[in-house]
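Researcher: We're reviewing a set of sequences before deciding which ones to prioritize for further study. For each one, I'd like a predicted 3D structure that I can look through quickly. This is Signal peptidase I. If possible, include the structure in token form so it fits the rest of the review sheet.
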Amino acid sequence: MHMARRGLTFVQKEKKLNMNLVKKILEWIFEIAVVLFLAFVLVYFFGEKVVNVGESMSPTLENGDTVLVNKLNYSITGPSRGDVVVFKPHGNENTHYYIKRVVGLPGETVEIKEGKIYIDGEVLEEELETEPVQEAGVAASLVKLGEDEYFVLGDNRNNSEDSRSADVGDVLKKHMLGKAWFVLSPKERFGYLK
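Model: Here's the predicted structure for Signal peptidase I, in token form for your review sheet.
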């Protein structure tokens, strides 16, 4: 005798429906977890905000400008000449963040004479237009950068406390928060930092 094939019972249908619902909920939870993780990574590595203090980076940055800092970049590679970096001098947690431009790289010599910056004895050619440096500070004599040491200057070379000053000195990579990459405010300068 052949039994007629019957559809799913009510209990079987309800069980299948519940399994589909559980599967959908788990997929939804996974997607939310991925989005939260990506948001955390973006904010932590690229979204740290720092406010520029003073006029030392003028005209690139003005007093009160808010910039975003890329903290991931320097954990992979070191700063390049021309990068605008955010750091605390000597790693001093009791001071504000400084924002300056990298001029000298590890292993190089830096000297400032007759208003010009010399790297390993050659005049530094910069894309950035700056005034001749009036005060050489510690760079009046040859400064030899050690491993992981960077020589930084403000873009407003004659109104900047930077590596020329013993209070700031050479900057160690480990004291850098990261690379300033985007101006958030004010709105007239909103955009990528050069």
